[in-house]
Recover the amino acids of this structure.
């Protein structure tokens, strides 16, 4: 199914230089007429307005711009607190042209594509503060914050809602206490504290529960600190290197 959007520019014409018997007329209600002169700023005429120089004005183009509310929507992946895990978000709302001259100047032809970058960036910053298991709280916060967001100076976003979804398999792992310990959280979570100053044997046990498929490449500096000189291991190989290193440290600590 195609995500809803709309083209705010309904019509483009090149007016004749002399229009004694066919002057430019005001637009229909619900639209705006934007007249593009050879020099200077565009002239915007609404349905109740008067067209300047309707018979002899030297206009390069005339544009009819839609002012009605339309539905827009798009899908976006948003990072959770652990950047290795993602929320699937569907954003849907209403949109209308706020400044017809800007729409013409920027040649906006797809409303959803125009508002999406700024809106998606706004949502990513909020979602990144939530654990993947707290998707209900994340969704509520996203919708609350959207009330104060302005997507684009040329377009107005009306009532807008975000629906979050996470893969059932990921949701199951996130709900499990052991599943909450992920490599992406090592620097700030319980495992990070263990690696820094706690019991290496316990850290090795916890690390063994991490899904090897989600482990990134080992940083070169960390690999060299562990005596690894070959190319950085990934996945299960990286996990085994870390566990072996922690267990060696545990044995050395017990000999002192």
């Amino acid at each position: 199914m195609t995500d809803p959007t709309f083209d705010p520019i309904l019509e483009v014409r090149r007016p004749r230089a002399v229009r004694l018997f066919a002057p430019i007329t005001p637009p229909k209600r619900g639209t705006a007429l934007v007249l593009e002169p050879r020099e200077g700023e565009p002239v915007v005429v609404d349905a109740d307005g008067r067209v300047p120089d309707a018979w002899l004005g030297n206009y390069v183009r005339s544009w009819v711009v839609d002012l009605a509310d339309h539905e827009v929507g798009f899908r976006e992946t948003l990072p959770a607190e652990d950047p290795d895990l993602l929320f699937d978000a569907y954003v849907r709302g209403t949109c209308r042209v706020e400044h017809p001259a800007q729409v013409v100047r920027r040649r906006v032809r797809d409303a959803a594509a125009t508002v999406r970058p700024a809106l998606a960036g706004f949502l990513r910053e909020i979602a990144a503060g939530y654990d993947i298991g707290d998707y209900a709280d994340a969704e509520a916060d996203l919708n609350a914050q959207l009330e104060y967001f302005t997507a684009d100076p040329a377009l107005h976003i009306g009532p807008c809602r975000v629906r979050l979804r996470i893969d059932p398999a990921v949701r199951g792992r996130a709900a499990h206490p052991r599943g909450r310990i992920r490599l992406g959280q090592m620097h700030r979570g319980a495992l990070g504290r263990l690696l820094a100053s706690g019991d290496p044997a316990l850290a090795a046990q916890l690390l063994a529960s991490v899904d090897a498929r989600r482990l990134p490449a080992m940083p070169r500096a960390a690999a060299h600190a562990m005596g690894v000189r070959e190319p950085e291991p990934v996945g299960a190989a990286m996990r085994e290197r870390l566990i072996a290193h922690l267990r060696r440290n545990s044995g050395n600590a017990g000999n002192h």
Q: What stands out?
A: The first helix runs from residue 100 to 106.
